[in-house]
Design a protein that fits this description.
Pfam families: GHMP_kinases_C, GHMP_kinases_N. The protein has about 280 residues and is α+β, with helices and mostly antiparallel strands. The protein has nine helices and eleven strands. About 30% of the residues lie in helices and about 25% in strands. Bound molecules: 4-diphosphocytidyl-2-C-methyl-D-erythritol 2-phosphate and adenosine-5'-diphosphate.
Amino acid sequence: MTVETFAPAKINLTLHVTGQRADGYHLLDSLVVFADCGDRLTLAPADDLTLTVTGPRAEGVPTDGRNLVLKAAALFGPGRGAAITLDKHLPAAAGIGGGSSDAAAALRGLAQLWDVALPEPQAVLSLGADVPVCLAPRSLRMRGVGEEITEGPRLPAMGLVLVNPGVEVPTPAVFKALTRKDNPAMPHPPGWASAATMAHWLRTQRNDLEAPARALAPVIGTVIGAIAATPGCLLARMSGSGATCFGIYDSRAEAETAATTLRAENPGWWVAAAEPFTLKPALA
Ligand SMILES: C[C@@](CO)(OP(=O)(O)O)[C@H](O)COP(=O)(O)OP(=O)(O)OC[C@H]1O[C@@H](n2ccc(N)nc2=O)[C@H](O)[C@@H]1O
Ligand SMILES: Nc1ncnc2c1ncn2[C@@H]1O[C@H](COP(=O)(O)OP(=O)(O)O)[C@@H](O)[C@H]1O
């Protein structure tokens, strides 16, 4: 039996940095959603554990033990085989959890292939602060350093655009450049009847990593301006530690139109139109 899993792009609609632990990791308060664009994993039964990376964004992605997919597989212990193909569509080191979502999808898929339980939460967190939130993609609130996951609000219909200008901004460097670490937490997200009311609420919230990321990579400001200038854009903001930014629209059709414009005007940028993605447990 071959198992196929989807690793959707993660979007931090908000990202509040509320403190810093003694070990240097930051305390976060983030509304996380997922988009229906992402990487695809195929996991086939095999004697040995192997990884092949394919797809339009395969270049530069490690194929050895540094790949988070193989690190995820290692959590199940030695002596298990699978031939894994990772079809890469998301840019790496881009603030949309490409590696983390791959790791989470590998955990889901391998647990199914080998008919075993998922590793313990602490082991999952050891793969990366973003991996727990990627385990069951849907609207979620993420707190702690990434390990405290609670349900987020039900999302209204909306269109999304993701844009990456091709600049890698390393997550540690962005956190390091953040001057104020004790920012206010996010109030309880109320739930919204429309994309417009959601965007209105989101505008009262923040991504605290946006300013330090823009200082390191000023092109992020250009990207946000370009998204905000597209017709129907309700909100333009950076996701995670950047450099990917997102736009929110009333409908997928509006997002598709905006994506076409952004691609035409900026041929070097990675641009995707999407809608929110929710994992249906039976189809993990
Ligand atoms: C910032 C966020 C927000 O969702 O997203 P991305 O920009 O990575 O997508 C995540 O917290 C990133 O998660 P992830 O990329 O898995 O982080 P890790 O590999 O565990 O850590 C990378 C580095 O980021 C910093 N880090 C990460 C998480 C956190 N809560 N505090 C931190 O200070 C640390 O410097 C750490 O060495
Ligand atoms: N499956 C993977 N896909 C992408 N990057 C990976 C993967 N496994 C390991 N990496 C490494 O992880 C780093 C961070 O990738 P990613 O999780 O996409 O970034 P971010 O944390 O900004 O969302 C990259 O520099 C890359 O070399």
